């Protein structure tokens, strides 16, 4: 029995990508169909990093095609991922070497935003993406400690600076520029916003699929600078279930809405505490607050993380959870959240600003 490209496409319209919940044809993932006699080869190109599930998706596609195409011979599916730039706020200059920027924000401090940001960045990198972290908390930089990076960045030309490296991430922070962890940044707002712009644009980011920006808490100068000058693909709000944290998280969400930055979703941190002695689970800061906020504002609940001493210990030691315990349950949650964020970005409109306009010369 012979079959055609159309038969292959029709078969794959019936197969749903478990990550996007769309069929592979609608998701524009099917590439390079080649038929030789009864043998078939094709590429499945995912728009999001998913190295950990490539084999699973390949097997799923091959098994489905064997079932849908009776008499088919050898079937070989090659699964890869390709991350492309996506649309940002209008009129904002793009950053060289960066395809997509993800802002991680919180309304108030102490909710685990920086820990969430670095673990999400590491989770994206574990799935095969090229990822960087920009520590935008000028007054309280924490990423150098969390990534276990010391020293100062180098400059080859006296104008640009090379990003620091830690656990496969490219990183930049004001913390690399100051002498010692106990040195305060006694700066007024304009100095802070200028410093953020310089850290972002003078760093020689090298081919990043995603740059995760760890914002300071609140809705002040740095957040407004980000909205006005930084080409943000989307923002993640981190909160705890506590009413006071949720109140401030709502303000952060509304701020991003007002400046036309898409909300990718909400992460609820310190959702539950499980006693290490007896295993009793308790909602110390309340229950269901993050999910209710998502319903109120029609945004996605990306996931919930526990209040766990290991998360704190691992971040303080310079080896965040996704690195320290890559196969553990908490790392799996971080990876699920990261994959969901990547899928949401992949579903957004592509950025076509780099395309040259057509110039038509007419004789008059």
Q: Could you outline the blueprint of secondary structure elements for this entry?
A:
Layout: H1 5-12, E1 30-36, E2 39-46, H2 54-68, E3 75-81, E4 98-105, H3 113-126, E5 131-135, H4 143-146, E6 164-166, E7 169-173, H5 189-201, E8 208-214, H6 221-229, E9 234-239, H7 243-258, E10 263-268, E11 273-274, E12 281-282, H8 289-297, E13 301-304, H9 309-316, H10 321-324, H11 329-346
Parallel strand pairs: 2-3, 4-8, 4-9, 5-7, 5-8, 9-10, 10-13
Antiparallel strand pairs: 1-2, 6-7, 11-12
Descriptive report:
The chain is of the alpha/beta class and 364 residues long. The protein folds into two domains: 5-81, GMP Synthetase, Chain A, domain 3 (2-Layer Sandwich); 98-346, Rossmann fold, CATH 3.40.50. The protein is 32% helix and 19% strand. It is built from eleven helices and 13 strands. The protein has helices at 5-12, 54-68, 113-126, 143-146, 189-201, 221-229, 243-258, 289-297, 309-316, 321-324, 329-346, and strands at residues 30-36, 39-46, 75-81, 98-105, 131-135, 164-166, 169-173, 208-214, 234-239, 263-268, 273-274, 281-282, 301-304. The protein has an eight-stranded mixed beta sheet, sandwiched between helices. A three-stranded mixed beta sheet has the order 1-2-3, with helices on one face. Strand 6 (164-166) and strand 7 form a beta hairpin. Helix 3 crosses helix 11 (329-346). The longest helix is centred in the last third of the chain and has 18 residues, at 329-346. The radius of gyration is 23 Å and the shape is globular. Residues 354-364 have low confidence and may be disordered.
């Amino acid at each position: 029995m012979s079959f055609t490209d159309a038969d292959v496409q029709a078969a794959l319209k019936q197969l749903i990508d478990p990550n996007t919940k769309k069929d592979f044809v609608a998701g524009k993932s099917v590439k390079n169909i080649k038929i030789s006699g009864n043998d078939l080869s094709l590429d499945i190109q995912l728009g999001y990093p998913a190295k950990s599930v490539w084999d699973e998706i390949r097997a799923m596609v091959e098994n489905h095609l064997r079932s849908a195409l009776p008499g088919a011979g050898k079937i070989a599916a090659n699964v890869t991922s390709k991350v492309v730039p996506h649309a940002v706020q209008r009129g904002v200059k793009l950053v060289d070497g960066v395809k997509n920027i993800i802002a991680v924000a919180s309304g108030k401090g102490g909710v685990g935003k920086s820990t969430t940001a670095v673990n999400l960045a590491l989770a994206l990198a574990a799935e095969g993406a090229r990822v960087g972290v920009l520590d935008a908390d000028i007054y309280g930089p924490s990423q150098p400690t969390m990534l276990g990076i010391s020293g100062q960045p180098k400059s080859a030309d006296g104008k640009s600076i090379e990003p620091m490296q830690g656990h496969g991430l490219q990183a930049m922070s004001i913390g690399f520029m100051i002498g010692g962890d106990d040195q305060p940044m006694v700066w007024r707002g304009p100095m802070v916003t200028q410093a953020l712009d310089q850290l972002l644009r003078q760093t020689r980011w090298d081919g990043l699929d995603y740059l995760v920006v760890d914002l300071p808490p609140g809705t002040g100068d740095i957040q407004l600078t980000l909205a006005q000058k930084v080409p943000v693909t989307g923002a993640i709000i981190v909160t705890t279930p506590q009413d006071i944290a949720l109140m401030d998280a709502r303000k952060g969400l509304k701020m991003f809405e007002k400046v036309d930055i898409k909300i990718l979703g909400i992460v609820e941190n310190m959702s539950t505490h499980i006693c290490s002695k007896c295993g009793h689970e308790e909602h110390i800061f309340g229950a269901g607050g993050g999910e209710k906020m998502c319903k109120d504002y029609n945004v996605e609940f990306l996931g919930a993380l526990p209040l766990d001493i290991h998360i704190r210990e691992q971040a303080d030691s310079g080896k965040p959870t996704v690195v320290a315990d890559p196969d553990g349950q908490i790392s799996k949650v971080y990876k699920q959240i990261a994959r969901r964020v990547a899928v949401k970005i992949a579903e957004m409109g592509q950025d076509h600003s780099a395309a040259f306009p057509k110039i038509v010369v007419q004789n008059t």
